[in-house]
Every structure is written in C-alpha cells, then in structure tokens.
Design brief:
The chain is α+β, with helices and mostly antiparallel strands. Helices cover about 60% and strands about 10% of the residues. The protein has a five-stranded mixed β-sheet with strand order 2-4-5-7-6. The chain has a two-stranded antiparallel ribbon with strand order 1-3.
C-alpha cells in the first residue's frame, strides 16, 4: 500500500513537471519573439508549431496538447491583430486553432505509440535477459550436486561388497543423474544461445572426422544401431566449431535413434553445391513427424511423435527420453556457425530427414579480404 502511494506520488510529480515544461516552452518562445520584434510575425506560427511538434515527439500526447493551447493563446494575444485580445472569430484564428491542436494530436499520438512500442520492447528484452540469467544460474547451481551424486554412485558401484538389489537401485540413481545432467547442460546451452552468449570458434573442420566421432558416440549408447554414410562424400573441410558441430550431430542422431525402429540404420548424406555450401542430412526410417508439429518442431519443449517402444539394447547405456530442447539447441548451434537447419518434407510414415548447412572452409578462406 505504501509502495503504491509512493509510486503514484512520484508519477504525479513527474506529470506536474512535464506539464509545467510544456507550458513554459511557449511562454519562453513568446518572450524571445517579443524582444526580437520585426515585421515577420506572420511566420511565428511555424515556430510555435515546431515547438509543439518537439514537445509531442519527446513527451507524448497530453504535454503536446498543453503546449498547443499555450502556443495558440500566446500567438493570438501578442501577434495577431487586434494585439492584446483573444479573438477567435476570424477565419485565420480558427485555422490556427485547428492546425495547432491537429498537429499536437497527430504528432503526439504517433510519438506516444512509438514510445509505448519502445517501452514494450525494452520490457520484453529485460524479461528475456533476466529469464536467461536465471536459467543459467540455476543450471550452474545444479551441476555441483548432480556431479556429486554421479561420483558417489559410480564409486559405490565399483565396490565388490554391494549386493545385487542395492546395485540395481544405485544404477537407477546414476542413470537419472546422467539424465538430469544432460538436461541441465541443454538448459545452459539454450540460455547461452538465446542471450547471444554462445562461444563459437570457427575453423576448418574435417567433416568426415566429425561424422565418424559422432557415430562412435552413438554406438556407445546404442550398440546395435548402424550409421551408414559415404566417407568419400564427407572428405571435405567445413567452417565450424568442432565441439558445437559434434553437439549438432549428437542431438540429431540421438533424436533419430529414439524414433527409428530396431534393426533399421540411420543415414547421413553429405552434398556440396557450386556456391560452396555443404548440406548434411540425418535420415531415419521412423514414423515421420506429424503435420501439426512440423511448423513448431524447432521451438523449445516441442517433441515429435512417440518414440519406438523398443527396450535399450543389452550392453548399451540407457537411451534418454526427449526433453524438447534438442532441436531448439540444434537450430541455435547451426545458426551460430553461419548455417541453417530445416526439416525436409517427407511422406507420412516415410521417415524423417533433417538437413543443415555449413560453408565449405576452402570457399571461405578463398574470399578476398575486405
């Protein structure tokens, strides 16, 4: 209650100051013109109109109306015959009155809309930044206890005196800690992407090596899943960040692995066009993406259809369920490396094909210095 009263009082004080300034402007201009004198009084109306327009642009509608009323009174009283009287019976006086308030109303309305739009944009930017900072802080704070849980659980699992039942329960704890750690990492990456704080070091990266490394990482998660690709087509360098490009492959292959039926391979195709752009496609033979989801698939917390129900293969780590952040992170990482990503159209039930692009390193290094 007290805070609201203080804010209202502060707003009232500001309004009074602004109103006084809008009123003082025409009075000050009048004092200057009276001292200058001369035979150009018929042009003074444009000076007052300019003053009204400035007030409208800087402060908005109602201060402009105050300035317009004061300007008209000063102009009519001091510079329009008969001088020293307020007479608006003549056609010229009525025109001046309409012009002053018309200019004040139009300019003030446009300025008010612009100022409100700027204020909304600033509020949204502030909210966006604060949300990103909060997300990043929470993610950082969560990493320490997650790492502690994972370290302790894996240490206990290495002991020979742990019974079978306890070992199974601790394995569940370690599994969930890894899952939670991956989610925290995704949240932190997304916060960096949305706040333009992502560190990317672009350099020539051999695409074949990046694909081979990503395929090996997927094999550790799902030993029975094959990734087929043509090393000859991928035998080229792209301008990318090795770590971030690996994240792109990991997220796309993990997504494909979740939806592809058991026994079907994942496929990576590489093509280069004459303009020096390299296209990489990650293809699965799953059920495809429903039409109603396609337009929002790269938004946060949006997932496709239900993944295949096959259990994790023997000997492999658990396959993490989707959080709806992976594809949003893919888009941010690809765009940060100067490329773009899209879901290519495929027939219903015809699988899924994600395509992202990068610049060929040879083409980029060959560009003349600016």
């Amino acid at each position: 209650m007290i805070g609201r009263f203080l804010r209202n009082r502060e707003r009232l004080v500001v309004d009074l100051v602004v109103g006084a300034a809008a009123l003082a402007g025409p009075l000050l201009l009048t004092a200057v013109l009276l001292r200058v004198g001369g035979n150009q009084q018929r042009y003074y109306v444009f000076l007052y109109l300019g003053l009204v327009s400035v007030v409208a642009t800087l402060r908005g509608l109602w201060p402009a109306l105050v300035a317009a009323a004061a300007s008209f009174i000063c102009l009519d009283y001091y510079f329009v015959s008969p001088v020293g009287t307020l007479n608006i019976k003549r056609e010229e006086d009525l025109v001046n009155l309409v012009v002053f308030f018309g200019a004040a109303g139009l300019t003030g309305w446009l300025a008010s809309r612009r100022r409100h739009a700027q204020q909304r944009a600033q509020d949204l930017e502030l909210t966006h930044r604060l949300r990103g900072e909060l997300l990043a802080n929470i993610s950082h704070d969560l990493r320490t206890p997650i790492a502690t849980i994972l370290t302790v659980s894996t240490t206990v699992l290495g002991r020979a005196d742990v019974g079978a039942d306890a070992r199974q329960r601790i394995q569940v704890i370690a599994s969930e800690a890894r899952r939670l750690g991956a989610l925290v990492g995704d949240m932190l990456d997304l916060a960096r992407i949305e706040n333009a704080a992502l560190d990317v070091e672009l350099e020539p990266v051999h695409l074949s090596a990046a694909i081979a490394a990503a395929s090996e990482r997927l094999l550790a998660v799902s030993p029975t899943r094959r990734v087929i690709w043509a090393p000859r087509d991928a035998d080229l360098d792209v301008l990318a960040d090795w770590q971030r490009l690996g994240q792109v492959f990991d997220n796309l292959l993990s997504n494909a692995n979740r939806f592809a039926p058991t026994g079907t391979p994942l496929e990576i195709r590489v093509a280069r066009d004459d303009a020096g752009e390299v296209s990489v496609r990650v293809i699965d033979r799953g059920p495809g993406v429903p039409a109603e989801v396609r337009a929002h698939l790269f938004d946060r917390f949006v997932t496709g259809d239900t993944p295949h129900p096959d259990p994790p293969p023997q000997g492999g780590r658990e396959i993490p369920t989707g959080t709806g952040l992976g594809l949003a992170i893919v888009r941010g990482l690809v765009e940060a490396q100067g490329g773009r990503v899209e879901l290519e159209p495929t027939p219903d039930g015809g699988g899924t094909s994600f395509r992202f692009t990068l610049r060929a390193a040879a083409e980029v290094t060959a560009l003349p210095a600016s």
